[in-house]
Each structure stands twice: as C-alpha cells, then as structure tokens.
Write a structure and sequence with these properties.
Length: 164
C-alpha cells in the first residue's frame, strides 16, 4: 500500500513539474516583423559558420520523419537559407540555398541553359549546396514555378531532367 502511494505521488509530481530547459528550447530571433524561433544550438551552429548571418525566419519541418529547421536570413553572401537537421552527432547543415543574380551563376550554367530547348532567363536563381555532394545545383524559377535545375560539378553543367 505504501509502495503504491509512493509511486502515485512520484508520478503526480513528475506530471506537474515543468519540462527541463535544454539547448533545444526555441528562442525568438529579435528584430524581425514576426518572431522566428529555432533552438539556440541551431542558431549558434549557423552563426559559428557564418558570423555575418542574421536570421529573419525559422520554420520547423518534421515531414520526413526527422527534425529539420529552415533558417532564413541574410549574411555576407546575401539572402540565404540554412537547412539544419538533427543527426546522431547533433545538428548539422544538410543544405544551403542562396539567392543570386542570374549573371552571377557560373558561365557554364548560363551557357547550358541558353543552348537548351528549355532556354529561359530566370526570374529567380537559387544556388543549392549540399555538403555531402561535390556538385552545386542551380534552381531556376519563372515566377514562383521551378522551371529548370542545373547540376554543376567539375566545371561542367547539365540540365537535370524533370521528374516524371
């Protein structure tokens, strides 16, 4: 009887206690139109890699079964988004997306687009870098629609076929 009461009291105390604070507690990003939140250790990891980075928006995404934060902001390279995922060894950048002018894309990328049947002058260009790959992808948009993706590796550019 006493043992049952002790266990019940312990469970009640634990249920009423506030959660412990961890480095994963979202913190507001100051100075933006609406508060963005990301774990402090995610923001610290990004700013350690890019000291000039100022976050303006953070979105948590769990759609693939893993926690990913998409942290948008500006830095020395302009507008950039860091996609950060929790892995066994902690948080790591799995992708960066940097907005750039079409004229700043490598000449080989511009040439392969200009000579293809799908030739366009994109409204927006996103340079996509994944640390696990030697290639850099360039997503070319017409309005809000992704029109072409170009793979650039080893100085060579190739249009990526659209999924069917």
């Amino acid at each position: 009887m006493i043992r049952t009461f002790a266990i019940a009291a312990l469970l009640a105390t634990a249920a009423c206690s506030p959660p412990a604070q961890t480095d994963e507690t979202p913190v507001p990003i100051e100075g933006v139109p609406r508060a963005a939140e990301a774990p402090a250790d995610v923001l610290a990891m990004i700013t350690a890699a890019d000291a000039s980075f100022i976050a303006s928006e953070a979105i948590e995404d769990n759609t693939i079964g893993a926690t990913i934060y998409r942290v948008k902001g500006t830095g020395a390279q302009g507008e950039i988004t860091y996609n950060v995922m929790r892995q066994n060894e902690g948080w790591s950048v799995v992708e960066t997306r940097r907005v750039l002018n079409w004229g700043d894309a490598p000449q080989a990328v511009r040439d392969v687009v200009a000579t293809s049947p799908q030739a366009i002058v994109p409204d927006r260009v996103e340079e996509v870098v994944q640390p696990s790959s030697d290639a850099v992808m360039y997503d070319l948009f017409a309005g809000e629609t992704l029109a072409l993706t170009v793979n650039f590796a080893g100085g060579e550019a190739a249009i990526v076929p659209a999924p069917q």
